[in-house]
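Aim 2 progress update. The chain analyzed this quarter is reproduced below.
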Amino acid sequence: MGDFGSIMNNLVQQSAFFSMTWGNVAMILVSFILLDLAIKHDFEPLLLVPIAFGMLLVNMYPDIMLDPAKSTSGSGGLLYYFYTLDKWGILPPLIFMGVGAMTDFGPLIANPISFLLGAAAQFGVYIAYLLAVLFGFSDKTAAAISIIGGADGPTSIFLANKLGQTEYLGAIAVAAYSYMSLVPIIQPPVMRMFTTKKERMIHMDQLRPVTKKEKILFPIIVTVVVSLILPTTAPLIGMLMLGNLFRECGVVNQLTETASNALMYIVVILLGTSVGATTSAQAFLNKDTLLIVLLGLIAFIFGTAGGVWLGKLMCYLSHGKINPLIGSAGVSAVPMSARVSQKVGAKDDPTNFLLMHAMGPNVAGVIGTAVAAGTFMAIFGVK
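Predicted structure tokens:
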């Protein structure tokens, strides 16, 4: 009977109820909210479902992220090994390759001025950097936080690791991916605030056709130019352009299919669950982390505004030929931001089709955020 009582006592003591804190309960509730947004409201479910589930798991069973160096058995938790691929800088470039394989750079090639709109949307990155420094974060931490403004989760993770800011990686990654998912909520009020109805109703001329030769040369030229100027961006820009070259060259359909489907989704599962698993209550519920989330939101708002402001200037200089709404798509959330530009424009005029025009700044924003990250790495001497 004594043995049975001991067995039952051990069983009860091993349950999560005895180790769970109110902070864990709060994070579990947050994970439920994220799952609701993903499943019920369809807010970027491919990102939010694995992130939210990783958050749920780690707050019930913290050892799922156990470092093997701290384990008595010498083996680590399952999601620790997924997370190691993040820290090694493997998963973010693979995500970029998948994005490149799925993306048509034709609108950007047809309208190169989109590069300026993609650059303008990085305004939020530098605003967030200055604010983070003012709030007392170190230069490197501030740089890692600021990339959230580009709404680019893989680049945020990549830069945080390169700058050695792994203690803030969870907060930075969750903020970046959350804001990517919440683009349809965050961006429209900013876009409407800084544009008039007349501007939002501007119809743009149809883009010129882009030749196959141009599409093949584009990823090669971008890789050479950007990598020569900022070699530290080669892992991200190189993989983005390699994926796009797979797509456009027409002779490696199997690689295109693998990069844009099977491999991409495997990486999303590994990356999403491991990012979510960095949000244990002990690591996430503190002043610095909550401040990072706030700064990320400010960065994203200013990034959207920066693109719209330059779009308004271009509208003025072109005598009303450029719709300022497409500037908001200059953040890296592909193709969500472009879709939001289309949706906001169509709300005032259902016959206005801005999607392809907005895709130019949108893919330029991916390149722009990677360049911003490379600039920070160059400034701090990180290779």
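The chain has a mean pLDDT of 89. Residues 86-164+185-271+292-379 form one domain. These observations will guide the mutagenesis experiments scheduled for the next reporting period.
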